[in-house]
């Protein structure tokens, strides 16, 4: 007679480890999360959209489709599109960032963010990524409208990217410097005033050769003028790495970022 061996009892399941494991989220994830928040805050803000998208598109369409301005020989949109791209960079990296950061500082938002696990360097990185993301959106919209108006760009795309990055650095540095040293109301007024002045005299929609020679030499040293002129040299005339605009932007970027790092106050 055959006997059946006794069944082996099943092993008991391992006990779940429910003990807490505190620890901060990895820094890159924190930066990307904050950058996403910054980006959503911009695109949901009607005033920011007016500044960053609607005004540049309206100026591009209006002056390309009409003869209100004497833009010299050549197609009007070929002159205007690079200048409007430069204006878009300034509106986001300087004007929008200065105003937004200034009011965050006033209401204690920056102070509270400084007390979170996200380090202050991470906060700056998140704001920078948000600015770049908004600029990409602006570039897509502006270029799409310009192409619909008959724009035919050509030139080295790497030169365009370098110019845009240097312009972003230059305008961001001075935007953060303004936001970190002035009261929020003063930042609001000053940033909008600078925006209007540079729009008028920075070669964005008005050619600099319409100004007297001595004045033109000074205006060419402005960051908006250097960015607009550099983009025109590449996209309109096919140049690669235009020397003077790149040098002017590099000097402004170094000065602005150094001054912002030295004098920015978080509270």
UniProtKB/TrEMBL annotation:
It is a multi-pass membrane protein. It comes from the Bacteria. GO terms for biological process: response to antibiotic. The keyword Membrane applies. The keyword Transport applies. Residues 47-267 form the ABC transmembrane type-2 domain. One of its GO terms (cellular component) is ATP-binding cassette (ABC) transporter complex. Coiled coil: none annotated. Its main location: membrane. It is found in: Cell membrane; Membrane. GO terms for molecular function: ABC-type transporter activity. Keywords: Antibiotic resistance, Cell membrane, Membrane, Transmembrane, Transmembrane helix, Transport. Belongs to the ABC-2 integral membrane protein family. This is Transport permease protein. The lineage of its organism: Bacteria, Bacillati, Actinomycetota, Actinomycetes, Streptosporangiales.
């Amino acid at each position: 007679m055959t006997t059946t061996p006794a069944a082996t009892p099943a092993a008991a399941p391992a006990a779940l480890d429910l003990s807490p494991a505190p620890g901060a989220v990895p820094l890159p994830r924190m930066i990307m999360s904050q950058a996403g928040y910054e980006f959503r805050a911009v695109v949901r803000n009607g005033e920011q959209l007016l500044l960053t998208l609607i005004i540049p598109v309206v100026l591009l369409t209006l002056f390309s489709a009409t003869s209100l301005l004497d833009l010299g020989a050549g197609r009007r949109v070929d002159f205007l599109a690079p200048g409007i791209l430069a204006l878009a960079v300034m509106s986001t990296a300087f004007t929008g960032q200065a105003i937004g950061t200034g009011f965050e500082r006033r209401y204690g938002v920056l102070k509270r963010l400084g007390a979170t696990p996200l380090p202050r360097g991470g906060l700056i990185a998140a704001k920078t990524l948000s600015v770049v993301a908004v600029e990409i959106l602006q570039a897509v919209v502006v270029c799409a409208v310009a192409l619909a108006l008959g724009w035919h760009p050509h030139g080295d795309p790497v030169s365009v990217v370098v110019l845009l990055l240097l312009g972003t650095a230059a305008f961001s540095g001075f935007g953060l410097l303004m936001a970190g040293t002035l009261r929020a109301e003063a930042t609001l007024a000053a940033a909008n005033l600078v925006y209007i002045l540079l729009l008028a005299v920075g070669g964005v929609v008005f050619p600099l050769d319409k100004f007297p020679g001595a004045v033109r030499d000074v205006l060419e040293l402005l960051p908006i003028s250097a960015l607009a002129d550099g983009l025109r040299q590449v996209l309109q005339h096919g140049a690669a790495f235009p020397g003077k605009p790149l040098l002017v932007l590099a000097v402004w970027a170094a000065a602005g970022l150094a001054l912002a790092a030295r004098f920015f106050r978080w509270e």
